[in-house]
Amino acid sequence: MTNYEIARLGDAHCHLSTSLTLEASKAVVELVNKQYQLPSRFFKVMSTNHLDVHILDDMMDHLKSPVFQGFFGIHPWYTHLFTTLSDTNTETLKEIHYNEILSPAPSPELLAVLPIPIDLHKHSKAIQSLLHKHPGSGIGEIGLDKMFRIPSNGYYGNQDSNNSEVKLSACRVKIDHQVAILRVMLQLANDLQRPVSLHCVKAHGPLFDIVREYHQIPQVILHSFSGSVDQGRRWVAEYRKRDQDLGFSFSHYINGVEDKRSQLNELVGYLDDSQILIETDISIDKHLERDYTDHLFGIAETIRVSRGWDLERFYAIIKQNLYKHTH
To answer: Which Pfam families does the UniProt record give (predicted)?
Structure first.
């Protein structure tokens, strides 16, 4: 596909890599400024933690054209870094926090590389400030993940760890802690009426029950939806009764692979035209000049063929869906 065809699409969910630094991000901004002529809010760029949230903010400040729609949030893989506790002795707080929210409790080696936990209230206030600063922004990536295990360096992107060979520990973040973080993010989205992009692994029932409580979120996007067709139908039935947009966003490497194709086709066939989105779910700083278009066009063509749309109808529908709630 041509650059013209790229500009007729958009990316409902992409990332910055965990290794990207503030300094290195300047080269990415320069590349986008010089070589890419894309519509405003082409990339819905997710933040995931306490580091990339500020890098994303800085990149948005220096783009000549607002091709990023920033989403600010706490990914389930980073929820363990945030606490609702308060204690003047930070080392005591650290041990209490991680022993309370991880199962099993962390080993001394893992505890040593885990950072002092971040005050959730202060971080949510920082996100709120960024949402006011960038009026078209949303909240994401947020959600629930029952399968994630803490990496041996404490968290992905930990520049302070000397652990060169990162493995997965046995520790998982307890679901009640993930829910507490999720609810803070959803309440913020509800209060400010901002769209959300949701991650879910093996927790589709609890996620549905929680998200449906918030009636002022203008758009709920289920990113790289991995639930069953019946679970998808449950979301559709609920949101057809509401004045809220629901989007199912599909990616090439999660939803478009051969062994997932039949389930994808069944779900896509059930959705309203207005509920279908496409995404890459990859880091644009690493992939933009490599295989980015393969990911974007791969899922685009899969969805188009599954739905039976001709190219012009496909472009019109996808563009309309992708650029909702961007201002």
So the answer is: TatD_DNase (PF01026)
Helical spans, DSSP H, in 13-85: 22-35, 52-62
Residues 6 or more apart in contact with residue 296 via CB below 8 angstroms: 6, 9, 11, 252, 278, 280
pLDDT greater than 90 at residue 233: yes
Q: For 49-58, 159-168, 197-206, 302-311, which range has the lowest pLDDT when averaged over its residues?
A: 159-168
pTM (2 d.p.) = 0.96
Homologous superfamily of domain range 3-322: Metal-dependent hydrolases (3.20.20.140)
Residue (of 20, 1, 6, 144) closest to 73 by Cα position: 144
* Domain residue ranges of the chain, discontinuous segments joined by +: 3-322
Q: Can you give the pLDDT at residue 325?
A: 76
Indicate the helix (H) or strand (E) that contains 288. Answer: none
Q: Confirm if 241 and 214 have CB atoms less than 8 A apart.
A: no
Query: Parallel, antiparallel, or unpaired: how do β-strands 219-223 and 245-251 relate?
Result: parallel
Residue 54 has a CB neighbour count (10 Å cut-off) of 16
Rg (CA), the chain: 19
d(CA 327, CA 324): 8
Instruction: For 166-181, write each residue's pLDDT tens digit.
Output: 999 999 999 999 999 9
Rounded to an integer, what distance in angstroms lies between the CA atom of residue 144 and that of residue 175?
Answer: 7
Q: Which residues contact 187 (CB under 8 A, 6 or more apart)?
A: 214
